[in-house]
Amino acid sequence: MIKDLTKGEPLKLILLFSIPLLIGNVFQQLYNIADLVIVGRLLGVEAFASVGAVAPLFFLIMFIIVGLTSGFTVITGQRFGAKDYAGVRNSVVISTILSLVATLFFTIVCSILMHPVLHLLNVPQNIYHNAYWYIEIVVLGLVSTTLYNLLANIIRALGDSKTPLYFLIIASVANIFLALFFIQILKLGVAGSAIAVVLSQGISVILCLFFVKKKFPILHLKKQDWLIKFNDDFYKSASEHLKVGIPMSLQFSIIGLGVIVIQSVCNTFGSSVIAAVTAALRIEQIATLPMISFGVALATFVAQNFGAKKFRRIRTGVIRTSLLSVFLSVLMAIIMRFWGADIIKEFIGSATVQVIEIAHQYLLISTFFYIFLSQIFIYRNALQGMGEVIFPLVASVAELLMRAFAAVYLAIKFGYIGMFYSGPIAWVSACFILSFGYFRSIKPIVYKIKEEKNLL
To answer: Does residue 269 contact residue 352 with C-beta atoms inside 8 Å?
Structure first.
């Protein structure tokens, strides 16, 4: 339900808001693994490889959509915090129109360029057909993915993090059953898995719309809300949304490009290193989920309080969440260092000793820098909640450049061990830029409020 995050103890609110996000993130990871397992078990190694071959492209597309819709709904959260409910409805309309236009454009461009992109990714010929149709079907169904992410982000912007979790769980379960049906019963192969992804997202869209109609009167849009007049007010509102949405989309896409760069370097070291890094990254993603969830919760908290002009609450929330993230980063680092090898064995039970040792080496290096990674999630989301997009974008560019340079240069000089330092180097660079950006942005705002109070 709707939750006003401008009242109450900041850390408690952020923690309660982040718990459903954490559960959802864990569920999403397990769902991704289950989807791959279905393809691998039912269709074999080549089919599994065809989905894996386009995984970086799939994640890049998802990052762009998530960034765009998240950016648009920052404005929604700010207007809700300011108690501007007409502005909230206007934000929903503008966000929907811009998202659909962007999705249509993106779908057409991706479809036209799909073959050249797959050749650029060096997709092997024996799996090319399946890889092409998997990613092409996902692209053609992007409208359902966009609408689900937009609706889920709108609901979160109003302080409800539980409802999107329920819909994610329903969609994930539906995806598994649909994949089994299309692959095992209808014999549609890898394409069946892609169709299941699109349809399950469509189910989530229907559920979100039904829930909004029943539980969110504030979002009940009338006919006049959709009567768009292309006047100064429309262009001003659209510009306000695009100023946040486009940089956040670019920022997320840069992160996706970083994944592609690392994967291309990793592929040069052979199957053992590929398997080890894949396992280590999966484990690391799960280990850092609490930090990610705190960051997303903080973004909504900051957006609402920024709209309400409660800047001291923003500063208090950021400080307390930052300290909690530092504690968690140290705790997860200890777990990974002492029990990482055992976790890897459970994750890939049939792996050789060499693969386990390589994966554990990665964790031993990266865990030293978890504190910097934890603060990236804090300051990046705090800045985005305030509508500040320049520093997060600059930090993402710096992260990509440092990651690519370190991965290539250190890999040449020190082998795959050198590549393992590319992530930490990128984290340190981004952390300093984001922390500087946050303190630079929040300081004059707080001083301004103090001055205004002194004049009263």
So the answer is: no
Domain segments of the chain as ranges = 1-228, 270-456
* N- to C-terminal Cα separation, the chain: 37
CA–CA separation, 221 vs 229, rounded Å?
A: 16
Q: Which DSSP string corresponds to 126-189? A: HHHHHHHHHHHHHHHTHHHHHHHHHHHHHHHHTT--HHHHHHHHHHHHHHHHHHHIIIIIS--T
The C-alpha atoms of residue 192 and residue 10 are separated, in whole angstroms, by 45
Distance CA 287, CA 412 (A): 29
Burial (0-12, 13-18, 19+ Cβ within 10 Å), 26: middle
Q: What is the pLDDT of residue 375?
A: 92
pTM (two decimals): 0.74
Tell me the pLDDT tens digit for each residue of 279-300: 777 778 778 888 888 888 888 8
Q: Which amino acid is at 288?
A: T
Q: How far apart are CA 124 and CA 114, in angstroms?
A: 15
Query: What CA–CA distance (Å, rounded) separates 293 from 16?
Result: 11
Q: Is the dihedral of CA 323, 327, 328, 333 positive or negative?
A: positive
Closest CA to 130 of 198, 62, 51, 56: 51
Where the chain has pLDDT below 50, the residues are 452, 455-456
Q: Which residues contact 409 (CB under 8 A, 6 or more apart)?
A: 418
CA-to-CA distance for 181 and 9, rounded, in angstroms?
48
pLDDT computed for residue 455 by the predictor: 42
**Gyration radius of the chain over CA positions:** 22
CA nearest neighbour of 407 among 246, 262, 294: 262
Distance, CA of 281 to CA of 234 (rounded, Å): 44
The pLDDT assigned to 323 comes to 92
Separation CA 377–CA 43 (nearest Å): 38
What is the four-CA torsion angle of 253, 258, 259, 261, rounded to 10 degrees?
Answer: 130
Q: Using the 8-state DSSP alphabet, how is residue 218 labeled?
A: G
Q: What angle do CA 137, 141, 147 make, to 5 degrees?
A: 155
